[in-house]
Amino acid sequence: MAMTRPLAMLGVDLQRWRSRLFYGALVVALGYLIVMPVWRLQTLAFENDAAGYESQFGRPDIGETLRTTVGLAIASLVIAMVLGTLLAYATSRLPRRVGFLRIIPVLPIVMPSVANVVGWAFLLSPGPGYLNALMRQLPWWDHLDSGPVNVYSSTWIIIITGFGLTSFVYLFVSAGMQNISSEHLEAAQSSGSSQLGVFFKVVLPLLRPSLVYGGGVALLLGLGQFTGPLLLGQNEGMKVLTTEMYRRTSESPVNYAAAAAAASPLVIVGILVVLSQRFLLGNQARFVTHGGKSFAPAGGRSYWAAFFVGLYGFVALVLPLLGVLIVSLSPYWSENLSWDLFTLQNYREMVRTPGVMESVSTSVVTSLAAVAICVPVGLAVATLVVRNRHLTVVRTIADVITALPLGLPAVIFGVGFLLTYTQPPFILYGTKWVIILVYIVLMIPFATRMQMTALISMGNTYSEASAVSGASPLVTSLRVTLPMLKPAVLSAVALMFILLTHEFAASLMVRSATTQVMGTVLYDHWSNGSYTLVAAMAILMSAVTAAGVMVAMLVGGRNVLDNL
Amino acid sequence: MASFRISGLSKSYGSNVIVDDLDLEIDEGEFLVLLGPSGCGKTTTLRCLAGLETPEAGRIEFKGQAVYDSSARLNVPAHKRSIGMVFQSYALWPNMTVRRNIAYPLKVRKMKDAIAAGRVEETAEMVHCGHLLDRYPSQLSGGQQQRIALARGLSARPDLVLFDEPLSNLDARLRDQVRTEIHRLHESLGFGAVFVTHDQSEAFALGDKLAIMRAGTIEQLGTPDDVYNNPATDYVADFIGMSNRLELRRSATGWQTGDGVDVLVHRDLPDAEAVVARIWPEDVQLHRGNEPLPPHAVALSASLLSSEFGGRHYDVTVAAGSEEFRLRADAATHGSWLRSSTAGEPVAISFRPDQMQVYPLGEVAVDRPLVAAS
């Protein structure tokens, strides 16, 4: 016994230090990957007496650019908040027979944003837009030669952006609504509240954290909006900070410092929002509601709800997809549709076009590689944050760092990576690795948060039961924790694969002539005006995503998407 | 011989002391119950024994070997202690069948021979769940799940089995069944056990020894019989269900209740100005209006508050001055008039003087009652 004591003591200390070392190294690596590019960008903006700031913020039209950025973000946020909350309420009131419609508000996330944006251009472009042409048949617009809608105007860019953000708001609000048990509502009603009173005095206050959180995320996404303003806004010279960053790095004379300076306001707002969400999350316990019965608002089930959800699905998903599909099957894009001219010629041409098929394989390979790295890293971070409360400093840093990419627009990471990996110590520009790395950074928040949620809801008891059964920590994670996390991991994999095969903003910065992904190739053809090819590519991108989701469902069961 | 020994155990969260310099011994094959209200440190003590919680100070020995010793900086992790544990929430792994759940402790401890010898099936049979081996936990009822959890805790035949309020998620009838099963299994397998609960009837039914805890320390340690008949303090008496409390103050002529009503106690009480008496509800007699009272009994006049039918008895609450008394009235004797009685009806209550447990007023932590009941 005298012998075993020091030995055992050594073992305990060794184990403690091993875990400290492991998590320390993990945080340093993540810090380098995530913080370094942003840091490089900001130091560059301050170089030479802040010449970057002078060049960017000394411009006469900078006020206009800032106003457009903020206006786009706020106006699209308002649209998204209203629509997202209404959709969440409507899906909770769906008649049982059409309960499957619940999935519809999430589906627009599955459609690539570039495909969505070009779809709307095909529909609502003032001249040959199909919907515009249709509307010009109506008596009160039959005198027009173009319009009545101009998709290239800021109003319509805002509306389309707001539609895109609606799904994100919906995700947060509907999750919050599911946490309200119907007993809370019944308690309020039996205490004498009217239905309207219940909604305003009980439902909305309990939804406050979801609304604040979802609103925060949507605001950041709106501020960092890139695809819409770039693809649609160029016609009328619309400028926001993100498109400015792209312009400064892609048009000569290239001025990285100015691009970096343009990123600063977004970085500041992003960090503020991430930190304040962390701060607000502190006392979330009083919003946690428990109850056996799930949320079911009084007043019965409504077919109006089904109609509303269906209408949203039609407008947000079916219409743009239809626009893309029609153009992809037409010999050229014009307002006159003729069914008998439909042809698969565009697809044949797409396959022959150099670079297209390579871009598909590059997209798939880089996405899969990034996902494969993100899952274990995310699990390690989630374990650190949820299960190692004694490592206070390390876990707080890890928690904030991994939330950061959610707060900053992808464009910023794109420029930051371009800057960081075109110079020593790691020159990766032109390889797939720089794309994989930036993809990892973009996805780390999802990989971490989703597994964190799963770990928290799993609780400690299952692993404790394993430990007292005699299983070491390693055996416990292999035989108990990982198998139980499988559904959450598969959902995270599906979501990350969807988002990455769509990725456009960051890819556009770090791509090179030889290493392109689907979104960037599509953009090049859009800039060249090869619209029929663009349409075929948009369909191809959607098909690749759909195939990925299908595989995830085959492996993980049909409810993979339910966990989103 | 003490098989498991805890000495000087302390644990706190921040400034909140949960376990305070606790000493405890569990003999081989002994069933020890830790009883106390929530927050008294009973679960933390259990988790320190399991190795799921790291204490700040003290020493824990399993069969003469230290598994935790703060002075030697020794802490054997949970998976290297020979224990089994049954959780309140069952904690059956939902991704494994019942068979794999029960086999798990054997597998991870590399006890292949026991698996080959049919230990899994045998243990499942012991809890009457042999027919459920190929089901998943989600396909089982709460009672079945807790039986399987019990089987899992026992399958490796650990030296010590730890129970963390295992019955509190079950409904009343199942609770009694599973309780009986735990008792039977302990008698036949003879494992050492520590059982945490806040339910005194569970404690009395299962324990060879009871430790009543309060604020991180042990208030009384004794056999169920000992604790029932001689609760060490007012706190213990209250917690185990001796709910009737009567304050007595010395007056010029004898003793008065807290309300200043003279009362004959018919026995010597400690040399104090004021004391607290505790009486079991079962020991209190109910007397209707003008009925003669038994001689040499402590008697108080009271008024009826409520009576609830309980089969062979009525649970009656009366008010004697500002004190409320609960008592059990025999249905055969009192049923007819209680049924038609109304609240406020004048009654009297009485109990034998030796049925009072007497404690000094305001003081609590003493080893024994000042006057033992005869």
Describe this structure in words.
The complex is a heterodimer of chains A (564) and B (374). Chain A is built from 22 helices and no strands. By secondary structure, chain A is mostly helical. Chain A folds into two domains: 21-60 and 350-564, MetI-like (MetI-like fold); 63-124 and 159-319, MetI-like fold. In chain A, helix 2 packs across helix 12, helix 16 packs across helix 17 and helix 18 runs antiparallel to helix 19. The termini of chain A are far apart. Chain B is α+β, with helices and mostly antiparallel strands. Chain B folds into two domains: 2-234, P-loop containing nucleotide triphosphate hydrolases (Rossmann fold, 3-Layer(aba) Sandwich); 243-360, OB fold (Dihydrolipoamide Acetyltransferase, E2P). Chain B contains ten helices and 21 strands. Chain B has helices spanning 42-50, 98-108, 112-116, 119-126, 142-154, 172-189, 200-206, 224-229, 234-239, 331-339, and strands at 2-13, 16-27, 31-35, 57-62, 65-69, 74-75, 83-86, 160-164, 192-197, 209-214, 217-222, 244-250, 255-257, 262-263, 274-279, 285-288, 298-309, 313-320, 323-330, 346-351, 357-360. In chain B, strands 7-8-9-3-10-11 form a six-stranded mixed beta sheet, with helices on both faces. Chain B has a five-stranded antiparallel beta sheet with strand order 2-1-4-5-6, with helices on one face. In chain B, helix 4 (119-126) packs across helix 5 (142-154). The longest helix of chain B is centred in the middle third of the chain and has 18 residues, at 172-189. Chain B is globular. Mean pLDDT of chain B is 89; it is low at 364-374. The A-B interface holds A 1, 4-6, 8-9, 12-13, 459, 461-462, 464-473, 475-476, 479-480, 483-484, 486 and B 50-52, 64-66, 69, 72-81, 83-85, 87, 89, 91-95, 104-105, 108-109, 152, 156, 162.
